Amino acid sequence: MTGKGRVGILGSGVVGQQLGRGFAAHGFEVMLGSRDPRKLNAWRAATPGPVSTGTFEESAAFGEVVILATAGSATEEAIDLADPKNFVGKLVLDATNPLDFSHGMPPGLFLGTTDSLGERVQRKLPDAKVVKCFNTVGNTRFIDPKFREGVPPMLICGNDEPAKRRTDQILRELGWPGAMDVGGIDAARWLEAMVPLWVRVGRSLDTYEHAIRFVR
Ligand SMILES: NC(=O)c1ccc[n+]([C@@H]2O[C@H](COP(=O)([O-])OP(=O)(O)OC[C@H]3O[C@@H](n4cnc5c(N)ncnc54)[C@H](OP(=O)(O)O)[C@@H]3O)[C@@H](O)[C@H]2O)c1
């Protein structure tokens, strides 16, 4: 192993690409995954650092930490393609949201209040340590975030305490002041529910480069 560790990312969209670029810039080895890795050739060519591309299965097998950055409605299908065996014992950072765009913008949720994608992922991967992370922040602010009113801690939740401490360390490596732990993976119900609100606030502020911050 070189650098700070190997990160496998499932997701070829803007979220996967931003996270891949950012983790590589901070000294992690990255494999970015897609059902069709050829679509990531341009990303790979343009991204400095130790980056590679692969299938979902190859990326999950590669990562000591695996990040889920797939469409919410496809997350469980992507895990099946990646093979649940490749997640055993690993920290899994779940950035996905169960957004429902069937009525256009702003989105609703196709799942919520009594269940969440975070819980579905943890049930599907009982031997992995799932931590909900990154889902409440816009992708342009994932890495070395800056906000005019100060950078809030990243809201996270999950069942495994050491996994949450490792997540806090990783976030600090990426320029965050750390994590705010809001509970077990069942709290993903409320972290995911914040996202339709985040979109509505963004429309009101006329920017998607904002974050939700709690003050006291
Ligand atoms: N946009 C943001 O700023 C932001 C911030 C935080 C969290 N999120 C969440 O992050 C996730 C990724 O968002 P995104 O905009 O980057 O990408 P996206 O367009 O929501 O998803 C693209 C990824 O989903 C995979 N996918 C789509 N249909 C699939 C299927 N039937 N089976 C397997 N995989 C499938 C695609 O696979 P292929 O590579 O094979 O095409 C691709 O890797 C979402 O859940 C989103 O809610 C977004």
Which helices and strands, and how do they pair?
Layout: E1 6-10, H1 14-25, E2 29-33, H2 41-46, E3 51-54, H3 56-62, E4 65-68, H4 75-82, E5 91-94, E6 99-100, E7 108-109, H5 117-124, E8 129-132, E9 154-158, H6 161-173, E10 179-181, H7 188-205
Parallel strand pairs: 1-2, 1-4, 2-3, 4-5, 5-8, 9-10
Antiparallel strand pairs: 6-7, 8-9
Helix pairs in contact: 3-4
NADP nicotinamide-adenine-dinucleotide phosphate binds near residues 35, 69, 74 and 78.
Task: Summarize the main sheet.
Answer: 8 strands, mixed
Instruction: Give the oligomeric state of the chains in this entry, treating copies of one chain as homo and distinct chains as hetero.
Output: single chain
Radius of gyration: 16 Å
Basic shape = globular
Strand order of the main beta sheet, please? 3-2-1-4-5-8-9-10
Proportion of strand residues: 15-25%
- Mean pLDDT across the residues is 97
The secondary structure category is alpha/beta
Number of strands: 10
Question: Which segments are poorly predicted (pLDDT under 50) over 5 or more consecutive residues?
Answer: none
Descriptive labels:
Rossmann fold, 216 residues
Detailed description of the structure:
This protein has 216 residues and is of the alpha/beta class. It has a single domain (6-205), classed as NAD(P)-binding Rossmann-like Domain (Rossmann fold). The chain is built from 7 helices and 10 strands. The protein has helices at 14-25, 41-46, 56-62, 75-82, 117-124, 161-173, 188-205; strands at 6-10, 29-33, 51-54, 65-68, 91-94, 99-100, 108-109, 129-132, 154-158, 179-181. The strands form 2 sheets. An 8-stranded mixed beta sheet has the order 3-2-1-4-5-8-9-10, sandwiched between helices. Strands 6-7 form a two-stranded antiparallel sheet. Strand 9, helix 6 (161-173) and strand 10 (179-181) form a beta-alpha-beta unit. Helix 3 (56-62) packs across helix 4 (75-82). The longest helix has 18 residues, at 188-205. It is globular and about 40 Å long. Bound molecules: NADP nicotinamide-adenine-dinucleotide phosphate (NAP). NADP nicotinamide-adenine-dinucleotide phosphate is lined by residues 11-16, 34-36, 69-72, 74, 77-78, 95-97, 99, 134-135, 138-139.
